[in-house]
Amino acid sequence: MNFTSDNAGPAHPSVIEALARANDGHVPGYGADDLSNRVRDRIRDLFEAPDAAVELVATGTAANSLALATLCQPVQTVFCTPDAHIHEDECNAPEFFTGGAKLTLVPGGDVMDPAALRTAIEGEGTRGVHGAQRGPVSITQITERGNLYPLETVRALCDVAKSFGLPVHLDGARFANAAVALNASPAEMTWRAGVDVAVFGGTKNGLLGVEAVIFFDPAKHWEFQLRRKRGGHLFSKFRYLAAQMDANLENGLWRELAATANARAADLAAGLSGVARVSGTPRGNMLFAELPRGVHIRLRAAGAQYYVWDGEEHGNGPVTARLVCGWSTPASDVARFIEIAASA
Amino acid sequence: MNFTSDNAGPAHPSVIEALARANDGHVPGYGADDLSNRVRDRIRDLFEAPDAAVELVATGTAANSLALATLCQPVQTVFCTPDAHIHEDECNAPEFFTGGAKLTLVPGGDVMDPAALRTAIEGEGTRGVHGAQRGPVSITQITERGNLYPLETVRALCDVAKSFGLPVHLDGARFANAAVALNASPAEMTWRAGVDVAVFGGTKNGLLGVEAVIFFDPAKHWEFQLRRKRGGHLFSKFRYLAAQMDANLENGLWRELAATANARAADLAAGLSGVARVSGTPRGNMLFAELPRGVHIRLRAAGAQYYVWDGEEHGNGPVTARLVCGWSTPASDVARFIEIAASA
Amino acid sequence: MNFTSDNAGPAHPSVIEALARANDGHVPGYGADDLSNRVRDRIRDLFEAPDAAVELVATGTAANSLALATLCQPVQTVFCTPDAHIHEDECNAPEFFTGGAKLTLVPGGDVMDPAALRTAIEGEGTRGVHGAQRGPVSITQITERGNLYPLETVRALCDVAKSFGLPVHLDGARFANAAVALNASPAEMTWRAGVDVAVFGGTKNGLLGVEAVIFFDPAKHWEFQLRRKRGGHLFSKFRYLAAQMDANLENGLWRELAATANARAADLAAGLSGVARVSGTPRGNMLFAELPRGVHIRLRAAGAQYYVWDGEEHGNGPVTARLVCGWSTPASDVARFIEIAASA
Amino acid sequence: MNFTSDNAGPAHPSVIEALARANDGHVPGYGADDLSNRVRDRIRDLFEAPDAAVELVATGTAANSLALATLCQPVQTVFCTPDAHIHEDECNAPEFFTGGAKLTLVPGGDVMDPAALRTAIEGEGTRGVHGAQRGPVSITQITERGNLYPLETVRALCDVAKSFGLPVHLDGARFANAAVALNASPAEMTWRAGVDVAVFGGTKNGLLGVEAVIFFDPAKHWEFQLRRKRGGHLFSKFRYLAAQMDANLENGLWRELAATANARAADLAAGLSGVARVSGTPRGNMLFAELPRGVHIRLRAAGAQYYVWDGEEHGNGPVTARLVCGWSTPASDVARFIEIAASA
Predict the structure, then answer these.
(1) Do D246 and D183 share a structural domain?
(2) Is the Electron transport keyword given for this protein (chains A, B, C, D) (predicted)?
(3) ipTM score assigned to the predicted complex
């Protein structure tokens, strides 16, 4: 019963099989091989963006930081939410890769509010040369708290950004979960809404470690490639990144895996509704449940794994547990978790 | 007949098998799983360094840059050769990760000369606060030109560095090839000779993409981990790096693969001796051969792949070809290459 | 009637005289001259810190950024208020000089609350390698909103910082105004309260452009000097910085100038009390006054200069004016400003 | 008898007078005052560049580093000579301000050779994404070894740079000495020859500390201003930089001071010709003289001050002394130096 993270489970078997298939013969390095070229084409097709610049990296932090650094000058500030992964969980990587840009935390929750964004942007860049200059807007779909941005909110945020001439970055570590939940196409979720660069995450969705970075303005391609190399993120044996992504795209595997993960989370939320306060209705693969102390103790005793987001692991009162499902979360684990919780 | 690079060939099948085996169940992320712990222990055993800090990253540029950044202050300069990978082939990654340190090119060839190093160090750091301060010494074993540092040279270089209080970094992208060629133990090649941090490369020796970074002073461990995360180089699904390295270490596979690669290069050199001027006797897996124009044309016509290091791909006069062998280079390719060359 | 800033007025005549006196003969550069040495000694005496490392730079941004960079690792975050000059008015200089550290804005006003600081520190550094690490605490005395930290608050903040092992930086761009207002000694205001590095500002208090940076731990001296040089902030003709500071220290000129500035501000506040809402009782040289629209219009018509901090320069409703006095603010300007305001 | 550096002597009295004159009344800060505007106009006039972006900073390291950073991407390399101040004497400031660019040392002496530059440029940027990309060319007029670039050499170097699409930076710490020696106009020395950004140094020529940075492409203005602020190099009381430069420009003072300095150096060289080997004929204000040991001892005994560039201060054999004259070097010091040397 491991609900700690979508990085705890295994890769999908077909990904390993794809690695094995790719592991044959001599091919050019650094992404110049046929498989890598094919994968880039497939992503362009998927995003209905024939001119987009598409590249692969191995970690989400690299994807976000390199994408932002390509859009953001060192004197600027990036607008994001207080919960943003780029703020909370990247150990200053965005600051490092941008050469010292700032992050401005737009007040509010994990789903950025267009009006709050407008106010935040208006609050920066008003001091001439003295203050940080306005830079990119960064949003996370689905958010770090498991919530979805409706497409109209994405469009509204992009409209605000554009009205100030600012580019928009979409952290899509859980892009697939969002696409399934929204029943939206990658194009609708990104460039059609006004997004300038999107991260199409694979790692959390069943790969070993691959994220695609997609610039809808191909003029950024060369700079991104240089920054990737300078960051030590250009794989010499690139085919092994490409093979993973290729498997991910094959027959819509990425949607299938995300659909399973989302369904598990929905089942979990439904089952817990009587015994725990679940914040909102999860539409992705992550939920936060307030567990009474007794339920928490019982679950731990049964070996359930999850992060305590609020409250004390050992102590009194309820805890808020973050519960993340993946494609490999067994339905039986979900059932057992619910059963233990309910019996408490 | 692909002799372009040791990143052109496939991974060893047992590495893919190890990935498949590791692909089971839920485990902690970010290197806290049992397999990752075991692999760190195995590397400590291999290096006879029970206290060493050992971490894995996925690329050689990351390994070198993060290791150097942990040793080098931004106001310092790194001493390396003009051929060093960190100077020639990392797109300013060392400068980036160190926060703007300089590289001082020690005059001479690819095998750094201890007397030249002493002179170079004496030439820096003499201007008080005005000039770059003296920083780490970085050497590559085997070098980017395919040459070996005899252990006594490594010791002599470390002695020079130590006499100035400077640490030593060893870029071991081809560590395995060197270990086989020198018939030396990892401990002899590194900390017993005075090396402070070593990169034990796996990527060029049959893995998909894994390098171990070993600090013999464990006090550097935490800083390195923070820098790795900040650089986007901490894998969430760390087990897939560990599994590769585990396979590499199993039954001395790493030595076996390197021995094969070295043997192929030796055969190639021997076979070419009548028709091309091979610079030195290769003891690793890389050689540079001056091919007469006719030989070059014939080889290309037959589909031979290699980099032209000097001379013109299309033009007149001889070319110097870089020829790299890997564990997967077929003996038949070597024989055919020689045959074609000889028949020209 | 210029109340825009303490950088708008002239330097004290004795400072120009000191420059003229220093402008004689050949002396060593880069701060190795007798006058520079003497000034460093005088500052050590003033701060009752015989071992302190003392250096001069020409701007406040340089002083703050270099001081923080010497205390702060790139993976850390600096704790400051949302109003802090280092956050609002230095165009990402702290981020630049630290190599990409973050600033954490401690909620609350311009006078940091010790309890809020504790909560903020507890909220960072809890994510292991993933989040920003805890770094220095930075406070401004007097604040950017013209308020004073009582010494017991400084001590309480330092105690909080120390309880986490964190160093404390004091931005003293208006140190002199604070010293006069608190009637406190420089030692009491800094190291006796637990401050690790203080900026003793001269620019806003009647010099052309000089700030002293004082590290009470002399072990930081060399690193600071290297960072200063690397930042382009080491003056070759250092005597001209030293001469200004020497004049500042002569016969307590610095206190005298600040006392005048503070007195002007107090007079201004008292005089405005009937016609404007002055936020708090100013004890330094800066106040914020809410001016009814009619008063604002009348003052502008009379040529009064000040920044509109809140409200619209041209529009409706009241404006909040920032009013800054300096040593050179004529008492007659204060009187006239009050008179115009009152007559409205 | 102080020949150590052009930063050892005093400022010209008229500069102090200008400071005193400027020290009157309240004016806008940060360079928005009338005097600062006038000075920028005067420099544009002097350089016959009505559209140029002109800004002032206080140190040469700041001027060079900020100018280069505005022209150079972090993945690029700057081409300069091994003697360049930016390489030897700025403690990695160019690397810092550019965000980690590299410096490529063009082989040869202190006067860069156009053919050597071409070869150096051709040698970089040939490795695609792997190596440093080609960046600006930086030359120093007059050089750190006291030599002049003939205008045709500047033009030839700029032509080489332009043929690769690279911009040219001119470090003019001793621009005035060069202008006098070449009898050339600032325009001829810079943009007419193809220079993109020039530093017009005042510090070494009789100011307290001011350098003008002139971008002939005004599109760089805003970025430079932001970088200057971020670097802590924007003076709040800007008028005191402007006043110095204003005095410098008044009635061609800058030329007059440089002419005196150059004449002193010429006299010194002529007088030493019998007793020391002077390298080349100095045309600027700096010479290098090989002094026999006895002469060196005798000069030191008489209190002569200079840097020993080669050889041992205390030891055997000759020493190479660097001898720098300034506008304030007394003719009597020159005569006495020669007399002592000759009498040895």
Answers:
(1) yes
(2) no
(3) 0.97
